[in-house]
Amino acid sequence: MSTQEQPQEHATGSWLHPKNVPARVVLGLLSFTGFLTNYMLRVNLNIAIVSMTGGGNATDSNGTLIREADCRVNFSTSAFDADTTRAPSAAEFDWDNYKQGLIHGSFYWGYVLSMVPGGMLADRYGAKLIYGGSNLVCSLMAFFVPSAARWSLNALLFVRFSQGFAAGATWPAMNVMASRWIPPNERSKFVATYMGNAVGVALTFPLCGILIEAFGWEWAFHVPAFICLLWCVAWWYCVFDSPAQHPRISRQELNYLEQHVVISKRKLRVPVGEILKSTPFWAMLVANLGSMWAFMTVTTYGPTYFKMVYDINVKQNGFLSGLPNISRFTGSLFFSWLFDKLISLKHCSITSARKVSNAISQLIPSILFMLMGAVGCNYKTEVIVLTAANLLGGACSSGPIVNSVDLAPNFSGSIMGFMSLASMSSGFLVPMFVGYMIEKDQSMESWATVFQITAALGFASTIIFSIFGTGKVQPWNEPRRNKEGIDNNVEEELKAVELLKDEHK
After folding, report:
1. Which of 78, 119, 271, 491 measures 20 to 30 Å from 233, CA to CA?
2. Using alpha carbons only, what angle is made at residue 152 by residues 147 and 155, rounded to the nearest 5 degrees?
3. Do 31 and 177 form a contact (C-beta atoms < 8 A)?
4. CA 466, 471, 472, 474: dihedral to nearest 10 degrees?
């Protein structure tokens, strides 16, 4: 480390690095807000499209009315009091369910294409540029969405594809950052910052509902884009690819991280063949696919479901659709704290923590999804069901998501890229599937089938990960090391915790 890179014994306070705040805490805050703003830019369309197309009553590909909403809700006497005298705005676009499915899916066509390359680039060149640059491109492209939509459907598909291609590198890149900054006993808590995505969804739906009601649907794209631009400035000045490169990190924190965050100093070639032959890798991939399928179903089609089934207007819809995502982040915080604590106290192994977390995040939510469409015209119960399912779904941050760092810290970005390539394909598969299920019949019964199939995937992926999943570092993490594998047991992983306890005595 050069003289200029030597950190101060006691970091001085500034807005770039507040006094007495560890550098990795600042990283965690910017990770959280980065995912928050990134998801604002990907889900704003989900609520805006309700206003852009008029939403509500089902139509076929010719625009012919098929049926009205099963249930109508009168909010005039509720906490969601609204101006019921205002006539609904006319639809600006006559997109049928098939075209809407294309629009929803176009983001993820690009998303899955850039995940693996994005992870490899972040592994090799650092996550700061890849993650920050991805968010920057997403925000700039968001400003063009309204113009593209009015120009042509193909133009809109191209803009959304471009946003998705840029965003695809975000998760793998942040995994690389985690592998270089976060000790094993803090991984679950740090990965909980990825659940900024759920908070982003939760904030975007009501915010965009208010913006659309007051100014028009275009502002659902302009305001989140501007917020993300502000985040990009903070990211560029506050984040560095490794502790050794950080000019304001305290010497105590630097020494601690250098002892307990072990990354190969060599430039390692990604062992693609070994990864694809790894049973724990495939178990993790399947588990994450089940979790993300449920998340994408609720996130992408929550507003549409409430509009089609209950005919709820866009402002009220935004608040109702946002509640489940707030609960997902809350659950993520609680379960990440709980399982990091259990590991620290040696009450469970890393493998056990990952398997139990995955079971919590998928098994009980799958049971709850079976209730959707089976409670009659009771929107309050269905909101509670989705909120509870997402609360428990937040445990995924302590399960298959962080498991990608457990298996191969040296290739965490690439592993996340491979894993997300499969799981985030749900971004375009879910719209295709849901569009097919409700194209002819948008009744509550058809929607119930959508949730039942989501539940079945959750059950299956839980069983597979419970049998084949592990928290052990795999032999291919260090290609030149012994072929017996490295047992990532609690004793080895918790040296960092013991040192920290000693320092605080």
Report:
1. 119
2. 70
3. yes
4. 80
What is the pTM (predicted TM-score) of this model?
Answer: 0.66
Identify the three-state secondary structure at position 66: strand
HSE-up (13 A, CA, CB side) for residue 230: 9
Beta bridge partners of 65: 59
Crossing angle for the helix pair 170-181 and 412-423, nearest 10 degrees? 150
Distance CA 347, CA 197 (A): 30
Pairing of strands 65-67, 58-59: antiparallel
Residue 503: Cβ within 10 Å count: 9
d(Cα 313, Cα 86) in Å, to the nearest integer?
Answer: 11
Distance of alpha carbon 39 from alpha carbon 325, whole angstroms: 11
CA 446 → CA 47, 49, 443, distances in Å?
21, 21, 5
Burial class of 214 by CB neighbour count within 10 A (0 to 12, 13 to 18, 19+): exposed
Question: Taking Cα atoms as reference points, which of 1, 499, 505 lies closest to residue 261?
Answer: 499
Reference 462, options 338, 336, 367, 372; nearest CA is 367
- Cα–Cα distances (Å) from 299 to 180, 387, 426, in that order, read 31, 12, 12
From first to last of its 505 residues, the chain has per-residue pLDDT tens of: 333 344 444 444 444 555 577 888 889 999 999 999 998 998 888 888 888 887 544 444 444 444 455 666 555 444 444 444 344 455 678 887 778 888 888 888 888 788 778 877 887 788 899 999 999 999 999 999 999 999 999 999 999 999 999 998 888 888 888 878 888 777 777 877 887 887 888 788 888 888 888 888 889 999 999 999 999 999 998 888 888 888 888 888 888 877 766 555 555 677 888 888 899 999 998 998 888 888 888 777 777 777 777 777 666 766 776 777 778 878 888 888 888 888 878 788 888 889 999 999 899 899 988 888 777 777 788 888 888 888 888 888 788 877 877 888 777 767 877 777 777 777 777 877 887 777 766 777 778 888 888 999 999 999 999 999 888 888 888 765 444 444 443 344 445 445 444 444 4
Residue 415 has which token pair? 């592993």
